[in-house]
Amino acid sequence: MMQGRFIALEGGEGAGKxxxxxxxxxxxxxxxxxxxxxREPGGTPGAEAxxxxxxxxxxxxxxxxxxxxxxxxxxAAARSDHVHRLIRPALARGAWVICxxxxxxxRAYQGGGGGLSDSDIAALHAIGSDGLLPDLTLxxxxxxxxxxxxLALRDTDGSDRIGGRDAAYHARVASAFSAxxxxxxxxxxxxxxxxxxxxxxxxxxAALAPLLG
Length: 213
What we know:
Blueprint: E1 5-10, H1 17-30, E2 35-39, H2 45-56, H3 68-92, E3 96-100, H4 103-113, H5 118-129, E4 136-141, H6 144-154, H7 167-183, E5 188-192, H8 197-212
Parallel strand pairs: 1-3, 1-4, 2-3, 4-5
Helix pairs in contact: 1-8, 2-3, 3-5, 4-5, 4-7
């Protein structure tokens, strides 16, 4: 049986992760591989329920919802269920798992953006998900101007409670992602996402080639 692989796509708002996840899944299926596409927060019924709480907030809370530590705990809980019920079983049967966001989004958003320490987020991940990391993390990077243009087209009904945070927050998130890729070059592949989706896809497939050999 062919070894299963776990690929995560990361990046800030408007990076094009969802599009690249779809294109990558199509390309891998074309090679005859079983591919499971999923997302975070989400991927299982329990995790999707937590996703709704995180992105939409709770009615009657005045828009405050949770403090940064509570938010991190909710993300970790959703990830724990996702890993246990979907990701590990798929990998065990030899499937490729393509995930739109994973641990590094928690590190960037709740850590870099929200001010929590990387060690605290790593501890939650160790407890909730046994420290499972992707075989490869594709960091899709776009310039702020491109991100703004894409979000204007995407979020015609408004942003969710995390995507709608101020520019300074999202600048901290982008800086955190960049720092992770610099610190862990063996796990990250940096992809220029400013071009058209098929130019970006070519970079994604080139980065993945060593795992397909």
